[in-house]
Amino acid sequence: MTIKRRDFLTFIGGISGAMLFDVVPRDRLVPRFSMPFMGSESSEAAFAATSSKLSFKPIKGTMPLLTDAIASSKQAIAYKSFEVVDDLVLPEGFVYDVIAAWGDKVGDSRFGYNNDYLSLVETGKNEGYLTVNFEYISSIPWEQAYEQVVGKSLPFAEVAAEIKALDKKDIDAWALKSGDPLKAKIELIAKEALIDLGIGVISVRRTESGKWERTNSASDRRVTGISGLEDGRYLKATGPSVEIFRKEKGLGYTDKLGDRIIGTFNNCAGGTTPWGTVFSAEENFQNFVPESVMADGTSLDPSKKKFSKDEGELNGVGNVFGLAGNKYGWMVEIDPANPDDYGTKHTWLGRYRHEAVGIRAEAGKPLVFYSGCDRRGGHLYKFVSKNLIKDPKNKANSQLLTSGMLYAAKFNADGSGSWIALRASTPINPHKIDVLAGKMLPLPQRPEGGTFKATKEEEIAMFKSKFKTLGDLYVGSDREKQGAILIDAHYAGNAVGATCTARPEDTEVAPDGSLFIAFTSGSASSSDGSPDLRIFKGADGKALEHGWIMRLNEVDNKPESMNFKWTMVATGGEPAEGGLGFTNPDNLAIDRSGNVWMVTDISSEKYNRAVPSRKDKSDKPVSQSDLRGLYGNSSIWFLPTSGNDVGKAFLFGFGPMECETTGPLFSRDQQTLFLSVQHPGEIAGVRKDMAFESRKFAMRTTDGKEFMQTRQVPIGSNWPAKKSNAYPKPAIVAIRKIDNSSI
Predict the structure, then answer these.
(1) Cis peptide before 31 (omega within 30 of 0)
(2) pLDDT value at position 594?
(3) Where would a tag sit more exposed on the chain, N or C end, judged by fewer CB atoms within 10 A?
């Protein structure tokens, strides 16, 4: 549905024109945007929309918008052709400078791959620590450019050929004997991949010309996916799950390292605390190590996630090192100013596919952390500390994360909701299957360990009759059971009836305490699950791929409240279908004037995918997922919160080919917007000889009339060098106005 003016005013009502900041000390307030942004210097892509109060000239996108101020009768002509640019496409008057790119030296290591969340902790005027997440490996462009960027070769072809010769798609490298040549080759590839993941800290400063540059201080360092394996830089852990880590024997696999943890990887979004530390979210760890666990919280054997390598994926890289899966999927805290800090995983925050973290830190109240599990059917979570905050700026507040309770959200269709404690005494009460888009619910499998997929209400009834409380699903002492529940948080949440949602990505806490959540996609998954259609539905009552923005208010605005109210305030989709012209909202932020910014994240294989007809070969409508090709590259949107443009969405930018622009944040004075450009050329790799092709798209005007668009689409990417045949590399940039005025 189209966002209504009344709903949008409700959305912004509690903000009162204030800036939404990451929760950082008042003398170092840093506004935070948490994922995809876009931009470029190409004035040909700029396109004016009628608005007297915009601080930028909106760019022209691939799709007619209500904010174009073009009559619907003229939109087919205006949009009959479109040229996609392999660059950061910014409005007129904006430029960007590359600060760091994959392979650059950082401490005794290198700048990693697929940079994501950024956090700027300013230490003075025009200087500070920039903390960077490195999420995953895009196998095609990574392999193409590895030798040039890193300066040595890896046996990619040999490993692929040897695995194929064994007539296998994957291999249990952990089980191979020491000295096996294939194991050695796999270990080499896996090691280099894990070095390119994790967290990085780089010191930066701004010159008199307005450009930011690195200063290479003693605090610059990398925490990689194998930190501790050879260098002794193990990560630490707190909370009940440490009891499980310390087990030398259990129902499943243990790594015999106790509470020491090797590395961090799949680091996606994050958050910054008032006391100047940074939280990094381990998201899709299930691609590298086993996710499911045994009833005592110990891991499945490394063989359950074998190493595999093909042309598009590099999975199971933790297998060859025998990494214990239960030690990944956490929130990692690091102090960028402390060169000896290599990270702490706080287990009270739960283990699941973490995305951004929203932090409420108010004196005299408990510390509260919000986070979402970014999977189809994932839950929204809240941690509430046992003890109260005295001074939000005190670094001792990290100790508040060692005791408390983790809750999962239950949404009701009437706009109310409650928090369910993930403790042993909580009754078993799984979600109803018939209201889920995919009619399937994964649950803990006992006594075997792991999970099973319930597809019938009879299976739910049997599960409830067999297990009465959450504690019945886990074994050990009271503290060990709590630790196992936190390790198995997603499936424990399913067992007690937490609402299955639509890929919750960003969780932003506004100054008034409201929580804003970006739900990226409401489609179902045959493996993970799907959302509750009573809450997450399109105008037709069916599953909606294009996503929503939700506002959640705790009752009486108490962070520790066990009840809340929620409302949807924006819905994705084509304007002709009542949407605002975006798909897959990823993150939200609010600028100093109180305006809303929203960024999107489309699956890479859908970027500019041709849609020559809205009917497939069977004369059935093309799926919502495939229609995402209409939207071009991922995008950033500006939604004014005052004046005549309230409730409208203006297009601010696009990113390079097949990339996700992410991690945006402003400098304190808002003259600079830092931005991560992740995985350019992820599908096609390097763009050869400036190749492009012409594709057809069955577009629609804002009033629903179909027309054909011819789109010129680059094949692969050469960003950031932007030279013919240059290898694409992830990088972080600083965006600014040419005159260096406030953005």
Answers:
(1) no
(2) 67
(3) N
